């Protein structure tokens, strides 16, 4: 008897637990799982290390919910096996407004639901998926309310919620304006965080605290948020942060807080910000920086002397800064490992390297492989060519469409392809201050002269036309006027009246002129009076 009760009690507990697991959204249906592999794409494979991979592709299937269980095809054993198996599941491109609690598995999981129209996330999401590895929820409609700390809590064991294994979280292209300060308390392994294209224009105290707490963070993307500064409290604990993207924001000065990343930061993207200059101390202390991107800045005019003294630098993208007129190449002499340098599409006219002649035998950048300098208004001087030759003319790239760097000035060399010229030739060349007009092509000023000449001729013709028109009008008016002047006389002279009647039938009346003459001397005075 006792035995039976015990079993009943046990069954009851299991039932209770089972319902508890499903939580508050139990009423919401899931997508039916039976024969799901006929609707979605299911793949499984095994790699050399005896890890089993399961691929579940349910993207763009007009689903409104995710699955309640993993497909039977994946086998229940594998699901329990822990980190030795891996599931990659995609629900992207469906209409899933609420992301429900994920079906249980101990396998490591990568889940994407991009372009899902997500507005809500069920809490907790990962209670039965402690080994979730990556979560890609970009291009949704998630706002601040959807992101609560309990979202990420793992299974409850002993007295607390276990942490989950999440490493990679993509929340870009959503509507996030601030984060809960405890948002990442259950994700102690987070290494990659993408918050690009959100509304984090100001990192308030809570948001800063949330991000600052993720000491394991290695890569962070805060691009395109309207940020103007990064608070001092953001980085002190992030001593593993290697890659930071803050492009497409509103920065005008390099945030001083970046110096706290001196030892870790390897890659920094500052492209498309509102900088007008970089100062001597802008990148002070960034001794590990290997890749720097300062491209696409419409107001950048000058990179001051000393700004680019970055000893570890290997890749510099300083292109598409349409107003950039000055950049000190000499700063880069300290970056011996420089391998890629993009200076295309700026407003640079020259590059100067003050290398003493005895040092010039050794190349300053032995590892340089790619140098792009197209689309600058180059002034092809001896200095420029010495610098380029030292840098290695051979590395100068042409664009994939065949565009090459060309001289804009001096006039003698305008349009010449840089790679067709040598320092030897340029330095020997005497560039005349004034040069003879070349016949090949009409120079601009000549064309302008033509235009002026044409304009003058046109206006002269116009004036003559007007004068002639005016004279004709005057004459006509005068003739008409004398016609009117006659009128009073019509009453005095039968003959005159006859003539004026006649003149009405005739074109431009020469007759009327006669009539006024016939009318006698007094009529002249009358005409004058009538005209006046
Ligand atoms: C995951 O592993 C734990 C023990 O490590 C086990 O209790 C649980 O049932 C497993 N989960 C699944 C879905 O198999
Ligand atoms: C620099 O950043 C811009 C904008 O984010 C990007 O288009 C460009 O490819 C980046 N350059 C490099 C070398 O990665
Ligand atoms: C240049 O690269 C080499 C090998 O990759 C490395 O050992 C060296 O420290 C680098 N130099 C600087 C200044 O970072
Ligand atoms: C280069 O050297 C010349 C003298 O040799 C000096 O006048 C000039 O200021 C130097 N330019 C730079 C950028 O150091
Ligand atoms: C090279 O220039 C340095 C100064 O920059 C000078 O001290 C040195 O003597 C020069 N070496 C030779 C071989 O001319
Ligand atoms: C560059 O030089 C080559 C050979 O000297 C010549 O064929 C080519 O037309 C030149 N290119 C231009 C744009 O002048």
UniProtKB/TrEMBL annotation:
Signal peptide (UniProt feature, chain positions): 1-23
One GO CC term, this protein: membrane
InterPro entries named among the record's database cross-references: Leu-rich_rpt (IPR001611), Leu-rich_rpt_typical-subtyp (IPR003591), LRR_dom_sf (IPR032675), Wnt_signaling_inhibitor (IPR052286)
Pfam families with a match to the protein in the record: LRR_8
Record keywords, A-Z: Leucine-rich repeat, Membrane, Repeat, Signal, Transmembrane, Transmembrane helix
Segments passing through the bilayer: 450-475
UniProt-recorded name of the protein: Insulin-like growth factor-binding protein complex acid labile subunit
